[in-house]
Design goal:
Layout (H helix, E strand, L loop, with lengths): L3 H61 L8 H16 L17
Keywords: Coiled coil
């Protein structure tokens, strides 16, 4: 039969060994996560740069002649939705423009 000191020594040694193993494993996982995160950030930056280039090209086209937008399905759908929305709203009384009797007002 083991005495208490031997049992406690074994317990503390086991605890220390597992703490070292777990810490090492956590360190590996943290490194993997950091590497993966860096890779994702690089991919995101590539995407943002590509989007910026394409949007700049679109901006130049629209700046030159915005009528090119009229034939796109997205714009046509936007106009249809806008017309539906306008038709669905109740008609309000039109604004009456009046000239003030005194021109100083």
């Amino acid at each position: 039969m083991q005495n208490l000191d031997d049992s406690l020594s074994m317990y503390y040694a086991l605890r220390q060994q597992k703490a070292v193993e777990i810490s090492a494993r956590i360190g590996q996982i943290q490194l993997q996560l950091a590497t993966e995160l860096q890779g994702l950030q690089e991919l995101e930056q590539q995407l943002l740069s590509a989007q910026e280039n394409v949007l700049e090209q679109i901006r130049l086209v629209l700046e030159t002649d915005a009528r090119s937008l009229l034939s796109t399905p997205q714009f046509q759908e936007f106009v249809r939705d806008l017309l539906k929305e306008v038709k669905a709203k109740p008609k309000k009384a039109s604004f009456v423009l009046e000239v003030a009797p005194k021109t100083t007002k």
